[in-house]
Write a structure and sequence with these properties.
Layout: H1 2-15, H2 17-21, H3 25-59, H4 63-66, H5 73-79, H6 103-111, E1 117-120, E2 125-128, E3 134-150, E4 160-175, E5 179-186, E6 193-206, E7 209-219, H7 240-244, E8 252-262, E9 265-272, E10 286-298, E11 302-314, E12 325-327, E13 337-339, E14 346-360, E15 363-376, E16 383-395, E17 403-404, E18 409-410, E19 426-437, E20 446-459, E21 462-475, E22 482-496
Antiparallel strand pairs: 1-2, 2-3, 3-4, 3-22, 4-5, 5-6, 6-7, 7-8, 8-9, 9-10, 10-11, 11-14, 12-13, 14-15, 15-16, 16-19, 17-18, 19-20, 20-21, 21-22
Length: 497
């Protein structure tokens, strides 16, 4: 700063001969005042930069996400040395996008503008305006599957099929540190299906306690795998708890979701109507859903996860069918399901479940269980669905499981040695047992499945998955009744950006 002031004086005396010869007292006073103002402005700018660096340290590891081509790499590296226990996002996760950042990360991005910038984190860039106010990111996912079933006593189940589990395009962004939005549409069935579509507001109640409120077409916050996106599940298909103990409207509904976050957990409450549709001639159904998770143990390489959730729904007069055909051996074999049999005249359902698990080093374990009670009209008795699962995984490459302590779910991993940089990627072995029981109904079936899998994460947004499933079903209605078992081998190539 002194050097800059001296240079300015030298330049002024050189460029102004009159001053260089005999400067008057008033001219010298004006010069001193001008230099004092410049020094004050430089000091204020330095203070802003230092406060921004502190915000980045508090928000690590997402400081890497707010780095741009003009941000000094040394500053980013320093921010990433923050201990894992102080961050709301685990360091083994890819940096969150504009709609998933917390308040500290959003403020850090706003308060450190350096012109129009672009950051590359997970496949596609995040754009920032010159003043740091506006952020924008394209997003999407491509999940391509192949599945082959054999060993069934029915040839109708011994199929080899292909399918797109997800084919999505969307965007997300924010205005300032508080307002954010996200939109995605899915094209996997050659039809346009609106999935996530919401606007939100986030803020801090006090240090260590944040909140956000989302409104729009919302993804359920329900159970561990039920709250994990299709691009982040450790198996090709979610557990039977996530696919069977669920509101009749499915994974999405239009409504509002406030969420509260603290250092060791979060809680959410969702109130929605039906999912996006074109029916406005009858009232929507109503679903109230709550979930909370807690990490009583949270260290550099260990987490204990405890979760509870519940929902209650009142069905729309236009949606009284409660028939369920639950996936048990892979999504892309339509004949391989566990069925309730035809069931109409539903008025509502109530469901609840528990989650218990965590990870230590490269190994993780999760147990989930749930129950759903469905109410029928005309004085008929309710019926109960039950499901449970035990899942586990181990990273041979030493990577930590991609557990998100902020949301209590899995996210996109930050691979230690990406294959595109000459590394081995991250290699994970997985195993799961799951069960579904609809036998409370006279027409209801039951089934279970055991799965062995391997996941190869080439980098934070590209993966290859293979699952080998031994399944067993006992349906009382449908094209294939009685006990049956067999094997399904499925594979997936996935890119998320």
């Amino acid at each position: 700063m002194i050097l800059r002031t001296g240079c300015a004086l030298l330049a002024l005396t050189t460029a102004t001969p009159a001053l260089a010869q005999t400067p008057s007292r008033s001219e010298l006073a004006d010069l001193v005042r001008a230099q004092a103002a410049e020094i004050a402005a430089l000091k204020a700018r330095l203070d802003r930069i230092e406060s921004g660096q502190q915000a980045l340290v508090q928000a690590a590891p997402a400081s890497a996400a707010t780095a741009s081509s003009t941000t000094p790499p040394i500053q980013v590296a320093q921010a990433n040395t923050t201990p894992r226990t102080t961050t709301p996002f685990a360091p083994q996760l890819a940096p969150p996008g504009p709609a998933d950042r917390n308040v500290a990360q959003a403020i850090a991005a706003r308060d450190n503008p350096s012109g129009v910038t672009t950051e590359w984190g997970s496949g596609l860039p995040v754009f920032h305006s010159a003043d740091g106010i506006y952020t924008f990111k394209p997003r999407g996912r491509i999940l391509a599957d192949v599945s082959s079933t054999f060993g069934s006593r029915s040839d109708a189940r011994n199929l080899t099929t292909t399918g797109m589990r997800a084919l999505r395009l969307g965007l997300e962004g924010g205005v300032g540190p508080h307002f954010f939005y996200q939109f995605e549409a899915d094209f996997s069935e050659n039809e346009v299906d609106v999935v996530t579509a919401f606007m939100g507001w986030r803020d801090r109640i006090r240090p260590g306690i944040d909140y956000d409120v989302r409104a729009g077409h919302l993804f359920n916050d329900r159970g561990f795998e039920g709250s994990t996106g299709s691009d982040s599940t450790p198996f090709l298909e979610r557990t039977t708890v996530a696919t069977a103990i669920i509101p009749q409207r499915g994974f999405y509904g239009i409504g509002i979701m406030p969420r509260l976050f603290w250092k060791t957990g979060h809680a959410s409450l969702t109130v929605t109507g039906d999912r996006v549709d074109g029916t406005q001639t009858v009232s929507d159904g109503r679903t109230v859903l709550g979930r909370a998770h807690w990490n009583p143990i949270k260290t550099d390489d260990s987490v204990l996860h405890v979760g509870l959730w519940a929902f209650d729904e009142s069905l729309s007069p236009a949606a009284t069918t409660l028939t369920r055909n639950t996936v048990i051996g892979g999504r892309f074999n339509g004949g391989l399901r566990v069925s309730t049999g035809p069931l109409i005249g539903g008025t509502g359902t109530t469901g609840y479940g528990v989650e218990l698990g965590g990870y230590r080093g490269p190994a993780w374990l999760m147990v989930e269980a749930g129950r759903r009670d469905a109410r029928l009209d005309a004085g008929r008795p309710d019926f109960t669905s039950k499901a449970w699962s035990v899942s586990s995984g181990f990273f041979l490459t030493g990577d930590l499981p991609p557990y998100n302590p902020r949301l209590g779910s899995f996210g996109q991993p930050k691979v230690l040695k990406p294959t595109f940089e000459g590394g081995s990627g991250a290699i994970e072995l997985t195993v799961r047992y799951e069960s579904i029981d609809y036998t409370d109904l006279v027409t209801g079936g039951e089934g279970w499945a055991g799965t062995l899998g391997v996941n190869w994460y080439l980098n934070s947004f590209t993966r290859v998955q293979v699952n080998g499933i031994h399944w067993n079903t006992d349906n009382r209605t449908g094209a294939i009744t009685g006990r049956d078992d067999g094997e399904t081998v499925s594979a997936r190539v996935a890119v998320t950006f």
